[in-house]
Write the structure tokens for this entry.
Amino acid sequence: MKKLRFTVVIPLFNKAQHILRTLESVAAQKYPADEIIIIDDGSTDEGPELVKSAKMKNVKLIHQTNQGVSAARNNGVKLAKNAYIAFLDADDQWLPLFLDEVARLIVRFPKARFFGTRYQIVESENNFLDAKIKIDNVNPNGVILDDYFNIASQGDLPFTMSSMVIEKSLFNDIGGFPLNEPIGEDQDLFCRVALKTPIAYSPNIHSLYHKDAENQASKNNIPEIECAFSIRITEEAKRQVKGKSATYMLKYSAAHLCHLAKLNIYKGLYSQARLLLSDSRCLLKPKHLIGLYCLSWLIQAKEAVSNTKNIVNA
């Protein structure tokens, strides 16, 4: 296991408040990272200077003009010297046994080329939530996930960008991350991986996904239309025509549409939310569909009452 060497790729863009915490989690690994590549994607804050001040071993800080997180990650992989790439977002953390756990998965499942672990969601300071992953009775020593789309369509994703490792050769085979897509680039990669290779998975929690971090793409870029990865996986499902895998892919895209509808409802874009929910794929998620329509009507009704009271009191 000591022969396994990991390159950590960290895209950095205006995460000065979090980057040192992230680097500390890499330094604390029981199984040390051989190489750490930080791609500064045109930061305008002091993040890059903080990286330099950390004076960690095996760290390479690379500067590029702002091109987006996909380009940053792709460029990091190009520079990586090792066979295994571990991605870590600049506002997330690893727990001390993450790389050790992945190394064990690599040894136990030699045919796998992608490895992931369960994670916790940090909603706010001291508020940690277990991700809602629909997997039952998983061997604590790890398993092969052969139903990624089914799992991902029923709850949270089984892993995040900060709780997975990929063979560099597989990353190159599937073409890396898509460019010029402001959100969903991670799920695009996961989809192409799931169609290509077995996924080795640990049900043990070894990563913290920080939703409380500032400057999150998922908060700043709420799509009003279906993301490209969902369109592509729907097209793939149609090519397969029959079978459980095709149905699971369509359910996965339906879950995505429902999620976007929910975000748009809270954004006050009710007509856009209903347009998303009108897609026939959403019928594959009937409980979500009914619940979101009710949520939309309820919030609008409350707003109407509030507006009426304001008019009366004016």
Q: What stands out?
A: The mean pLDDT is 92. The radius of gyration is 21 Å. The first helix runs from residue 19 to 27. The chain is about 45% helix and 20% strand.
